[in-house]
Amino acid sequence: MKLVKIEPISRLEGEGRILIIVDDSGKVKDVYFEILELKGFEKFCIGRPVEEMPRIVTRICGVCPWAHHMASGKAVDGVFGREPTPTAKKIRELAYCAHQIDSHALHFYFLAAPDLLVSPNASKAERNVIYLFKKHPEIVREIVKHRNYAVKIESMIGGKSIHPVCCVPGGVSKPLDKEKVEKISEMAKELVKFSEKWIDNWERNIFDKYHDLIMSRDKYYLETYYMGLVNRRDNSLNFYDGDIRVVDTKGREVHRFKPSEYLNYISERVEPWTYTKFPYLKKIGWKGFVDGQDSGVYRVGPLARLNVIEKISTEKAQQAYERYLAAGGKPVHFSMFAHWARLIEMLYASERILELTQDEDILSDDVINFDGEYVGEGFGVVEAPRGILYHHYQADENKLVTMANMIVPTTQNNAPLCIDIKKSTINIINGGEITEAALNRIEMAFRAYDPCLACSAHSLPGRLPIKIEIYDANGHLINEFRRD
Fold first, then answer.
1. What is the pLDDT of residues 261-320, one digit of tens each?
2. What stretch(es) of the chain map to CATH 1.10.645.10?
3. Which fold has domain 85-220+335-364?
4. Rounded distance between C-alpha atoms, residue 156 and residue 184, angstroms
5. Are strands 171-172 and 225-230 parallel, antiparallel or unpaired?
6. Burial, 326: exposed, middle or buried (Cβ in 10 Å; 0-12, 13-18, 19+)?
7. pTM score of the predicted model
């Protein structure tokens, strides 16, 4: 019996490791995906003025601060009983589409692409963006240039891109002027072209080159439920607002609910070997680390979003979506299709920004609603780049936070991540040689989810992990690993 560690796991946001227990015959006995950090944001938000929450929660993560900012802003709107003005909603959505591009570009091009543009079997010295820049500087410069467009749009609206100050109770902090809107429109046009180019690159080159890996049912494949926001009118893609829709392993709608109803549908479980919880569908129940129709495990994120929607409202993204479904079916259960889904979402976000810049309301000065009755409780739900994000606050008569609950995408993907990693590990190294290339292909299982471990460890689990002990068939302790 031996313990194989992938520590630290690489090319992701946060601190984690994978522990693989292999018996003497070389067979994988068990696999643990451990998230090693703990932040506790839910606790130290207690007692803070509730209107400060949209600024505080951006510090949960420097990669997806806009997701927390938007979800928090919507929850605070509810606490104060203020419905944002139509213009404020459109400005928020515009900024948030820019953030989707910013985050998706970071993950796909800088974290995932070294596997796909170089090779999953390449050495560590080659599987990184620095090597890509040395070999293909023009490609990397183009990527940086276009991601910077998204960052500029975030800064124009939020004051700064990483820790924005955009959302205020009932609206946004400032209106947009004509000059800014025209600049945003020009950048959006370039982002549309850029997104189209990379979807074409995926379809013509990457998908063909790695077809067997992407379409493998032995690894990177789970049949789960899926959860995501949909436009209330037509079940189309919407990052900012809508109903929460859940489909089963066959793509059939099984739940549809409002943000305020989330606790009727989601429960959370803790395990002693990780700081991140395991949400599951409450009405099915926790059946363990298994997928399938009878399991309460569900997935969120780009793959899930394109499984729960019925259409995309923008023309070019809809066409790309149809080609995506033709290749993978619906629902798509192949985890690696999440990379393809990100590229389609980048195209949709670019087209949607362009649409919003052409909306007459976007230049209105009516960006804050000061009317409303304070109710002391609010719910905010958006589609973070990594999946659906819940913020729920309660505040007292002094407008101080008494309860904060946040369920983030990586937390919701924690159970499927563990299942996917274990299944992939068994099929990659079972009985074979454990090579650097094999370990990297195991890491590719979690990269498909774009996990943000810092976000996932914001809350305090019911039991804090201490150690894992491994015993042989006779009950003798053969290995243990402790957390400091």
1. 999 999 999 998 898 999 999 999 999 999 999 999 999 999 999 999 999 999 999 999
2. 85-220+335-364
3. Cytochrome-c3 Hydrogenase; chain B (1.10.645)
4. 9
5. unpaired
6. exposed
7. 0.94
